[in-house]
Amino acid sequence: MKHLNSFADYTVDELKGILLLAEKIKKNQDAYAHILDGKKLYTLFEKTSNRTYLSFVIGMEELGGKAYNQLWKDSNFTIGDLMSEIKYVGRNVDCIMGRFKKAEMTHCFMRYSTVPVINGCDNTFHPTQALADMLTLYEKTGHFDVNVLYIGAKNNSYNSLCEIVVKMGGEHVWFDPVQSRYGCRR
């Protein structure tokens, strides 16, 4: 597994593989109940989120793994050398999920980690939300090349959803009613 931050790092086939596997797991959870036996996930929250926390912790448990949660303020990341702390965490777990305030911290973790890092949300991207959205779109339409209208401010969720929709062959149209702006990406 590689880091998950930008979908530019993945091929269309890799993304389809991830989404189709997620669909299989969703349809037949019992068959995958032990696929992550013995695997450990470290979740680190600089930004809070009940949904992200519960999704990762419950997901790991339902697949047989274990999740270890830590708040940024309670960690040594606030006082120690980041590179050393990141490497230490990587020696103890199989994967890191970080929810950070700034994309620079996501990049720092990806640079120094010896295990895959999942961006659980930062100020630039929210790839896990976009994957969940794309899975829902696939389940409803039966194909990946969907056209999406996004209404709202451009933010991290917008960036990731737009990126995956376009990568998968769809069109992404956005409208911001507050600022009366719109645009399109293909």
Automatic annotation (TrEMBL):
Keywords: Transferase
Pfam family, any one: OTCace_N
SUPFAM superfamilies named among the record's database cross-references: Aspartate/ornithine carbamoyltransferase
GO molecular function: amino acid binding; ornithine carbamoyltransferase activity
One annotated GO biological process: L-arginine biosynthetic process via ornithine
Stretches assigned to the Aspartate/ornithine carbamoyltransferase carbamoyl-P binding domain: 2-139
Alphabetized InterPro entries for the sequence: Asp/Orn_carbamoyltranf_P-bd, Asp/Orn_carbamoylTrfase, Asp/Orn_carbamoylTrfase_sf
Domain of life according to the entry: Bacteria
Name listed for the protein in its UniProt record: Aspartate/ornithine carbamoyltransferase, carbamoyl-P binding domain
Species name: Megasphaera paucivorans
